[in-house]
Amino acid sequence: MKSKRIHLRPIAIKDTKIYYESTQSEEIMYMTGTQQTFTFEQIEEHIKTIIVDDSREDYAICFNKTNEMVGELSIMDIDKRNSAAAFRISMNSTKYTGIGLGSEAIDLIVDYVFNSLNLNRLQLEVYSHNPRGIRAYEKAGFIKEGVLREKLLYNGKYSDEIIMSILKKDYNNQ
């Protein structure tokens, strides 16, 4: 999958170092609501596990020109019976946020989910303290469906968890 500036490729063991480094960023951890710390070995084992898990697809977001990995995303809990899946995305560093790379990746994956995987629904959760993420999802056609109030306690402050989705008919009517 490829757009103007980026392409998506399957996550690989070689991505362990950069994946691990992104889990060390306080701001990225806050945006994703990640409160647990991980060792390099835990990240490597996670990657080995997800590579063979047929209920999900995980991709590195890479610049076209340099192949540098700038983020990662997942289509998870693929439920073919109900034609639905969950979605998550994270950039590796704040220097890659706010410049449209996430939006490009989201557009690529939404098209893939509806036109290649032939699913009907893609759902995600985003925290209320991540307005850039919320805007990117809305721009891609995701609709807010519900709010789990004060679901996350992070650094002494509560944030709501916002549930959003896009349906194939929403995507086709854009």
Question: Can you describe this structure?
Answer:
This protein is α+β, with helices and mostly antiparallel strands and 174 residues long. It has one domain (6-172): Gcn5-related N-acetyltransferase (GNAT) (Aminopeptidase). The chain is built from six helices and seven strands, in the order βαααβββαβαββα. A seven-stranded mixed beta sheet has the order 1-2-3-4-5-7-6, with helices on both faces. Helix 1 crosses helix 3. The radius of gyration is 16 Å and the shape is globular. The two termini are 20 Å apart.
Structure keywords:
174 residues, 7-stranded mixed beta sheet, globular, 32% helix, Aminopeptidase
Element order, helices and strands? EHHHEEEHEHEEH
CATH architecture: 3-Layer(aba) Sandwich
Count the beta strands: 7
Strand content: 35-45%
Kindly summarize this structure in a few lines.
With 174 residues, the protein is α+β, with helices and mostly antiparallel strands. It has six helices and seven strands; from the N terminus they run βαααβββαβαββα.
Secondary-structure blueprint of this entry?
Elements: E1 6-10, H1 16-22, H2 26-32, H3 40-51, E2 57-63, E3 69-79, E4 84-91, H4 101-115, E5 121-127, H5 131-139, E6 143-154, E7 157-167, H6 168-172
